[in-house]
């Protein structure tokens, strides 16, 4: 059986222009209209370098990697939105893509007209589109707005309609970018279920780019890890995700030590673990009284501040969350100013030994999240093996049940 998609040595080069414009007086600006005095340096940037792989019919492929790794560029080339600089693509089926909200839609046309427009682009006849029309409308949930121009749709409504069109017009190859993150949690779950059905029950091919490791693990039969425009690893999703996560945690010397709030009200040092004496620690041992420490420097008065953190599993799923306001016995003085140190006791469930990601945030009286999780603000929790928990134990949590023997 021939692959439904063959990618042979695909490369993509972009030309980056750097202009060095000196300070110009009014006279210089007038004269520059007739003589260009600016200096320009050109630089080649290779977004993709010699990418080769093949996809069999019915496969569900996950593509992961950091921002800027070339994932979206690859999908745009496969979708024929942008041409490759070099290489060859062989496709043996119709391709439908969902890359960005609004891509392939016309803002002035109604939702109904856009459904037929997209079907025509896919090479479908009007009768074929009409046959699937009711299913598309039902899945998207935009029935009341079908005759409304698309420019009046919210981004979520556009996403719902775009996914429904791509999924139900039965392309042999469905390409999905991280665009699903725009939708609400319920619709994301619905989309993941539909993609799973398309791949496993209908035998169609799915290429899926996502930062949601749980979705990649559950949906895909194979995963590929892109790194700086090149393939770093390809294999079973568990293996690929493990390698990606191992390489994605930045060493502490490359992280920012301090983070400024977006409204300038405070500076926060990157939270860190301390023992009972206040000494920084990197590995958590069960039975130890460790704490997570937040050090604030408030530059102006803030009526309320609420730090919090969450511990995530390696696939990105949330294990537990804790916020200061959850503890009613603790209260930060109102109109706080200057240096404030906030500690939280780290009472961790008995997790399987290994490394976990900790994300954190801070909200004020307006419920405004100042910090967003990214690679530079990531805190790592390393849990050590104890006598009680053995290496290789099955499951996320260690648990002892009561056992009774009779006879």
Walk me through this protein's architecture.
- The protein is α/β, with parallel strands linked by helices.
- It folds into 2 domains: 5-248, P-loop containing nucleotide triphosphate hydrolases (Rossmann fold); 252-383, abc- transporter (atp binding component) like domain (Coagulation Factor XIII, Chain A, domain 1, Distorted Sandwich), CATH 2.70.50.60.
- It has helices spanning 26-32, 71-78, 111-121, 126-140, 155-168, 185-200, 213-219, 237-248; strands at residues 5-20, 39-55, 60-64, 86-91, 95-98, 173-176, 205-209, 222-227, 230-235, 258-260, 266-274, 280-281, 283-284, 291-302, 305-312, 318-323, 336-345, 354-364, 379-383.
- A hairpin with a 5-residue loop joins strand 11 (266-274) and strand 12.
- It is globular.
- Residues 250-254 and 385-393 have low confidence and may be disordered.
The dominant shape is globular
Helical/strand content category: alpha/beta
Largest sheet: 6 strands, mixed
What is the domain total for the residues?
A: 2
Rg for CA atoms: 26 Å
Number of helices: 8
CATH topology grouping of the largest domain: Rossmann fold
Q: Architecture of the largest domain in CATH?
A: 3-Layer(aba) Sandwich
Proportion of helical residues: 10-25%
Kindly state the mean pLDDT as a whole number? Answer: 77
What spatial order of strands do you see in the largest sheet?
5-6-7-3-8-9
Number of strands: 19
| Uncertain spans | 250-254, 385-393
Oligomeric grouping of the chains: single chain
End-to-end C-alpha gap: 60 Å
SSE sequence, one letter per element: EHEEHEEHHHEHEHEEHEEEEEEEEEE
Quick one: CATH superfamily of the largest domain?
P-loop containing nucleotide triphosphate hydrolases
Proportion of residues in extended strands: 25-35%
CATH class descriptor name of the largest domain: Alpha Beta
């Amino acid at each position: 059986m021939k692959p439904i998609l063959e990618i042979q040595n695909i490369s993509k080069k972009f030309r980056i222009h750097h202009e060095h414009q000196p300070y110009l007086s009014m006279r210089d600006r007038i004269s520059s209209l007739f003589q260009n005095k600016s200096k320009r340096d050109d630089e080649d940037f290779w977004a993709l370098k010699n990418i080769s792989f093949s996809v069999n019919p019915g496969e569900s492929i996950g593509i992961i990697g950091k921002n800027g790794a070339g994932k979206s560029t690859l999908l745009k080339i496969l979708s024929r939105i942008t041409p490759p600089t070099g290489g060859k693509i062989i496709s043996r089926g119709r391709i439908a893509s969902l890359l960005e909200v609004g891509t392939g839609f016309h803002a002035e046309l109604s939702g109904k007209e856009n459904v037929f427009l997209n079907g025509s682009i896919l090479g479908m006849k009007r009768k074929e589109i009409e046959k699937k029309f009711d299913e598309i409308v039902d899945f998207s949930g935009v029935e009341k707005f079908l005759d409304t121009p698309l420019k009046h749709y919210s981004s979520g409504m556009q996403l719902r309609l775009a996914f429904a069109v791509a999924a139900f017009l039965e392309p042999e190859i469905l390409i999905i970018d991280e665009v699903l993150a725009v939708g609400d949690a319920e619709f994301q779950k619905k989309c993941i279920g539909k993609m799973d059905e398309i791949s496993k029950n209908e035998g169609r091919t799915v290429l899926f780019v996502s930062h949601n490791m749980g979705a990649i693990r559950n949906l895909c039969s194979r995963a590929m890890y892109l790194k700086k425009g090149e393939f770093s690893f390809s294999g079973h999703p568990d293996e690929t995700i493990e390698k990606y996560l191992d390489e994605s945690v930045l060493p502490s010397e490359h992280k920012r030590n301090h983070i400024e709030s977006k409204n300038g009200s405070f500076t926060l040092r990157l939270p860190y673990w301390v023992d009972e004496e206040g000494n920084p620690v990197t590995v958590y041992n069960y039975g130890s009284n460790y704490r997570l420490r937040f050090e604030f420097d408030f530059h102006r008065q803030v009526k309320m501040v609420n730090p919090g953190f969450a511990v995530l599993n390696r696939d990105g799923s949330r294990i537990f969350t804790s916020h200061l306001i959850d503890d009613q016995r603790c209260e930060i003085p109102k109109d706080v100013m200057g240096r404030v140190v906030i500690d939280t006791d780290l009472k961790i469930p008995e997790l399987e030994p290994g490394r976990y990601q900790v994300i954190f945030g801070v909200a004020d009286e307006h419920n405004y999240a100042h910090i967003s999780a990214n690679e530079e603000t990531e805190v790592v929790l390393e849990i050590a093996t104890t006598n009680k928990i053995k290496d290789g134990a099955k499951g996320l949590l260690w648990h002892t049940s009561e056992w009774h023997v009779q006879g």
